């Protein structure tokens, strides 16, 4: 079975109280992540400071000995608040997902750069193998039989 990434942070920061205020204050915040068999999918919320903007996710699987960066894509329509935009990303991890994944979000707009690195701790997910189904008691061969009433 494919490995499972276990977030070492709340996987839906956007659902926590005060999220909109944190976006206004810091300009960029991770909204949610979801581990999938091929990698990590997520969304980022940014303060709409200018029309042209770039959002990307920088990540590593080896404690920053090397890293990769993937662009996030704008997700129309924007959030109903009119002040922020949402961007989606996918980190393709494949078999490497058994390692610990760390990432941070970068937002470039109007000549400035803003980061969301989980208050300096980076967003970390621990890779682990999915547990195989437990070998329980032998199944009764008649457990799938139909019972007929006359």
TrEMBL record:
One GO process term, biological-process aspect: regulation of glycogen biosynthetic process
Recorded GO CC terms: protein phosphatase type 1 complex
Domain CBM21: 20-126
Pfam families, sorted: CBM_21
One example GO MF annotation: protein phosphatase 1 binding
UniProt xrefs under InterPro entries: CBM21_dom (IPR005036), CBM21_dom_sf (IPR038175), PP1_regulatory_subunit_3 (IPR050782)
Superkingdom, natural source: Eukaryota
Record protein name field: PPR3E phosphatase
Organism: Eubucco bourcierii
Lineage of the organism: Eukaryota, Metazoa, Chordata, Craniata, Vertebrata
């Amino acid at each position: 079975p494919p490995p499972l990434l276990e977030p070492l942070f709340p996987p839906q920061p956007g659902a926590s109280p005060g999220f909109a205020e944190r976006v206004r204050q810091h300009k960029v915040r991770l909204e949610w992540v979801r581990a999938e068999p091929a990698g990590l999918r997520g969304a980022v919320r940014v303060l709409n400071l200018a029309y042209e903007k770039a959002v990307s996710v920088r990540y590593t699987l080896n404690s920053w000995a090397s890293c990769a960066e993937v662009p996030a894509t704008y997700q129309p329509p924007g959030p109903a608040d009119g002040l922020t935009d949402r961007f989606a990303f996918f980190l393709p991890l494949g078999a490497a997902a058994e390692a610990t994944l760390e990432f941070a979000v970068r937002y470039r707009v109007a000549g400035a750069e803003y980061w969301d690195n989980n208050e300096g701790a980076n967003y970390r997910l621990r890779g682990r193998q999915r547990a195989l189904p437990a070998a329980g008691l032998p199944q009764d061969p008649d457990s799938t039989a139909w019972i007929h009433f006359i």
